[in-house]
Amino acid sequence: MEAPSTKDYPTMGKEFINELASFDTTKMKDVSTQEKIIMPTAEDVQFEKREANLFKGIQSFDTAKLKHAETKEKNPLPDQEVIQQEKGVQQLISGIENFDQGKLKHTETCEKNLLPTKDVIDEEKKSA
Given CB 3.0 to 4.6 Å as the disulfide criterion, which of 40, 46, 82, 87 pairs with 78? Predict the structure, then answer.
């Protein structure tokens, strides 16, 4: 596809160009422009003043007035009794995980589910 040449673009007619050149600006209406700038309210001004004073106070704060403070890290280590209890729990868990199932004895499971006889069923029907 070829790029269009200048003859393919629309052109302004000579009449339009002559009209623009001979245009009389005195025929235009006089319009006053109104700039609508919303002024801040008294509350907005007070808020900004307080905020500016606060920032000024923070920036001009004299750090020499601060007192030195020692930080104490409190990280109590567990005592011997707690350590022994945790070791006992871990030994129990490792004993369960590493249990040798070959040491178990073989057992037979015998399920006993006694069903009622016909006489017992008939007797229950009569009593109900």
Answer: 82
- Terminus-to-terminus CA distance in the chain, angstroms? 100
> Which pTM value belongs to this model?
0.28
Helix (H, G, I), strand (E, B) or coil at 74: coil
Q: Residue 92's closest CA among 84, 104, 103?
A: 84
Block means of pLDDT (10 residues each) for the chain, 128 residues, are 69 79 85 86 94 92 90 85 89 86 87 85 88
Q: What distance in Å separates the CA atoms of residue 122 and residue 47, rounded to the nearest whole number?
A: 95
| Rg of the chain in Å (alpha carbons) | 50
